[in-house]
Amino acid sequence: MIPIKDDNPSRRTPIVTYTLILINGVVFLYEIALSFSGDLFGFLRAYALIPANIMNGTSLYTLLTSMFLHGGMMHIMGNMLYLYIFGDNIEDIVGRFKFIIFYILSGLGAAATQIWVNPYSTVPNLGASGAVAGILGAYFVTYPHARVHCIVIFGYFIRWITLPAIWVLGFWFIIQLFTGVTVLPQMSSNVGGVAYFAHIGGFITGMVLIHVFKERK
Length: 217
Description:
mainly alpha, Rhomboid-like fold, 3-stranded antiparallel sheet, globular
C-alpha cells in the first residue's frame, strides 16, 4: 500500500518540509557523484551512524548527519514521498521553527531505539526514515480520520483506494513492528538490513512529542 496524497490541506506553505526534501535531494546527488569517483564508501563510513561508534562515544555528529543520507533511489524516494504527504500538516500545527526541532528529535529517538536494540553493530545506519516516522506518528495521533489516497499493488492487482490515516499509518506501523520482531533473533554486529526499530522508535517518539510541540489555540 503506497500513499499518494491526503485530503488535508495546510494553511501555509510548508517551507521547512520543502527545504528538508531539497537538502536530502542535494546530498543524494552528491552521493551519486561520489559513487563515480569511488569515494562513496568512505563518505558513508564517516557520516552514517554506526551504533558501535556511538556506544564508544565517538562520531556523535553522525546522529544528525545520518538523517540526510540514503542508500539508493528507492530509499530516498520512499522517505521523501512520506515527508511530502504528511510533513506539511505537522509543520502547520507546530510552527516552522519547532518543526525543525521536532524532526531532529524524532530522528534522535529513532536512532536511540535502533542503538538500544543492536548496540554493537558496525553496519552504517542512514536515512531520513526515523525522522519521517516521527511525522507519521504525529499525523496518526492528530489527524486519524484524514483521508489518504493509496495505490494497492498485489501481483497483477492494482487498485486506487482511499482510507482514513489511522488505517494507513496504523498498517505501516504494524508491518514495521511485526517485521522488526521477526528479524530480531538474526540481528548481529555485522548484519545489515532495514532498521525497523528506528522506524518504530521514530513513530512512537512522534506520537509523544506532538503533544508537547502542538500549538495551542
